[in-house]
Queue: 2 jobs
Job 1
Amino acid sequence: MSEPTSCCRVRGGYCERCDVLVGLEGLHVIGVDRDDGGWLVVEVESEPTPMGCPACGVVAHSHGRVLVRLVDAPAMGRPVRIFWRKRRWVCPDPGCPVGTFVEQDDRIAAPRSSLTTRACRWAIEQIRREHASVNGIRRQLGTGWRTVWDSIRPLLQAMDADPARFEGVTILGVDEHVWHHVSTKPFEAGGRGPKELTGMVDLTRDAHGRNRARLLDLVPGRSGQELVKSFV
Ligand SMILES: [Zn+2]
Ligand SMILES: [Zn+2]
């Protein structure tokens, strides 16, 4: 019988095919498993390389690992967890203020975020383009409402403060929206927020004549004045 040309037969090295499949830049897949709930658990690490202390530049010594669990975007019909075995380092200089430090890569996840950066991007795209609710997103990610909201909120605030999102908009769609099932809880507590909202959608067509259909903003209320206020 011929040898199966299976993945992950490499011993003592990383598997290029698994790395491509998972697609986390700078990290290698070292294990894949399914947890009790059927979710996909992918264990990753960075390649060992010499590390300099961020404060004094002295070559740091390896100081064990820290396991960080992250919620990733769903894949192949399942919620995904990334277990990142982060490298920890210690600066050998006794006078250095840093002491120990842990590897960090914002391309993978922002510091203290429970979601990977791409899970945050995925969630925001779901809201902007697919009319998803935070509740729908948290169901697909297999996590809590608060976990999703706390991770995407700083990104949404940064996007809201960036006027560049209105650049190139030549056709603006305005959509008044009334929630019929309004919970008494405020939005931050898992409620649906204001009863009446005015949405602004970028209806500009791209070079191929396709409607961009990006949600640009949602403002409370449903009068023309609310719309004008959002542009001043
Ligand atoms: Zn493989
Ligand atoms: Zn140092």
Job 2
Amino acid sequence: MEKIAFYRKYRPQNFDHLVGQDHVRQTLLNALREKRTVHAYIFAGPRGTGKTSTARLIAKALNCIALTEKMEPCNECDLCIGINEGRLIDLVEIDAASNRGIDEMRDLIEKINFAPTRAKNKIYIIDEAHMLTKEAFNALLKTLEEPPPYVYFILCTTEPHKIPETIISRCQRFDFKRIDSRTIMARLSYIAQLEKIEVEDKAIEAIAKNAEGGLRDAIGLMEQLMIDKKLTFERVKEMLGISGNENIDEFYKFLETGDASNALQFIQTLYKEGYDLPQFSRELLEVLREKLIAAVSENKTDAINRLMAMTDFFQNALDKFKNAVIPQLPLEIAVIELCGYKKEFAAAGAQTTAEPTVAAKKIESKKAAAAVPDESSCELVELNITNINARWPRIVEHLKTPTLKQSFRNSRPSALKGNTLTLEFKSRFYMDEMMTVAHLAEMEKAFYDIFNKKVRIKGVLQKIEIAPVITVEAPAEAPTKTGAQGVAEFFGGEVVEE
Ligand SMILES: [Zn+2]
């Protein structure tokens, strides 16, 4: 027996089986019931979301001689069977990608004037319709203006913006959505069950996520990746270069605790084991996004700040893969920056002790505030705004809490009056993060370590977007004072001296 690809075999044969496009199904069924179908439709949407399958369903519904009460095709009459088997002459499917010119269109239009041979109605499905040439569209337009009563056009496209407005205005448009991964998983499980394929849930989940809303691709992948009626996560992982949730979880834990050394080791292992690092980054971003959404809904400011920073760094990493000389470098840089290193090295130069002790341990901010100064803090310098700016990276280095470091990096010292230092923040998120009592104490200790003076900190929101001070290359340069004018509002950052 001829082997039929799963996606063909499991194409929806009635509207009820159309997956993930409820709005389309409902509207079309209503139109059929109320005899309000139009002669030209545009089905727009990503690939593999059911556009041509739906077009075929309409073809059946418009021709079936025994429609059910729910307006479903019977799938038993000659016409239904003819369409299911792809041999009904009155259903014409054209791939505009390969038949895009005026000649093909003329040819098609000439035949339109002949009444249907066997069916009630002639249906023309034009796939990838946006590929038609301008002349072909013009020829089509004339037919759309006055179609014979038995002719129906369904234009399917992944790029509706490329279809002329004149055409669109004569069609009823349906937008097909990406199918969510849960729906795809359910469909894959259903097919696996009927085909007696032994599948691991995680394998199906990975395929569904990878398909980006396209059911056809997901079904195709499942068929392609199974071996001897078995589909394992191991195999999917290997073939798609994906890393799996435990890996992401493990990596996330390193990030959360600022454990740069283990995070870097982890990336190295991924690389050695042949994982696709951009793909890993995409999966990581997806997980971060989910966590971020959860943190926002629970109003957890700390977590939101941390996750925003992570998302930022790894989105940057993802953008850099294309030009990366060393494949793992973008991820490594993201880790190092996130854990609060790189920029400090650059600015502080040789005097920095590169020991990653800070990142290796998760230290509660309160404990950090109470801890004794480490050896690197023995040099003491005069407290003035020039020195504060010059020592900024070193001060950041003295902070223990990763989120606090992140906030610090998104602020700049703008003025020092007496012992009160004003910091300008790019966003309220970062300012709020800084202005907790524990964090202020931690910061003051950092200042104390370096300047041997108590410094009070006051935060203000910066009005004008400026580059974070951390990018200043020459540490000895005097700071600019532009920020003071840009003060938007004062935040109660006064702290009682210990
Ligand atoms: Zn039928």
